[in-house]
Amino acid sequence: MKCRRFKWGLFGLVVLLGLFGGWHGIAHATTSKPTNFTAVPLLPKNQLTKQADYYDLHVTPGTTQVLKLAVSNPGSTSRTLKVIPINATTADAGNAVYIPSNRTDASAQTTFTKMTTPAVTITLAPHQGKTVTFRTKIPSGGFRGQVLGGLFVTDVKATVPKPQKHSQNFRLDNRYAEVTAVSLWCHPKQVMPIHLKLAAVKVGLQGDQPMVFAKIRNLTPLLFGELKIKARVIQDQTGKQVTTQTLKAGSMAPNSWFNYGVTLGSKTLAAGRYTLKLHLTSGKRTWNFNQHFRLSAQRTREHNTTVKAVKQPVNWWLWIILAILALLLLITGAYWLGKRRTRS
Hints:
By secondary structure, the chain is mainly β. The protein folds into two domains: about 5-185, Immunoglobulin-like; about 195-310, Immunoglobulin-like. It has three helices and 18 strands. The strands form five sheets. Strands 1, 3, 5, 8, 10 and 11 form a six-stranded mixed beta sheet that branches. This is DUF916 and DUF3324 domain-containing protein. InterPro entries: WxLIP_HBD (IPR021759), WxLIP_PGBD (IPR010317).
């Protein structure tokens, strides 16, 4: 797959989809090209994918990897930019993303931000360019699999929203931003099975709507894609299926997690015990998870209120009465007009 540099558009959100687990390939997302600045990686000699325009590096334990990014301002006004090292994470939509985030998973040996020097702020005069340098210190014992992150470039005049603890909603207001991926390998040919875990299932609110949230963890230090999820909610007392939901083209960053939200369907429910069944696939890999959860009386009322507001039952007696009244009015009006014409 041809790799391109990841670009973020105005009012946009860059989503990076990983299609090949365990390979060096990084999938891409394309948006409108930034016009207020450019960022080009200066690839070192230990680059694995020679024609890629992102860092895909074979690093050595105990060494310091130098990353250089050429940033330029083609405009006619000065611009202040901030270059931020970030970790690749998985958004709640079920896709690997490269955005500023405090979302981490305890299974990671290390992360790109832990190994790399802090963010850098630079001011560029019109038509000026500078090279920004970061240093990534590789642990003496190395690391397994893949460490995945990026260099996120943004205009400091636009405030970057603080990431929420349980959400990765992110907006780019009145500016462009651009991110260049950084993929690091101590053992590029190392093969690993993908290990997924269902960490927790709970009922929460998304807006005013109760949903079942399943926290899915990727415990493997590898990006993988082609993720499909089929979720079913079963009422334990009756054994009936309440709702079903699918995710067709997901991906997960190395050592990351996301909350997969499942709606409770369009019918009224009773409080009690339910089971969430998840069937996940990625290529030939398959995972199945089942976990019970309890729908409280409060959440049941909230769900049923929403369902009734969306789909009110038809009151046929009311419509019949209205139809009879309308018919009587028509008959009365016709009789009155006929009598008046007779008198005339």
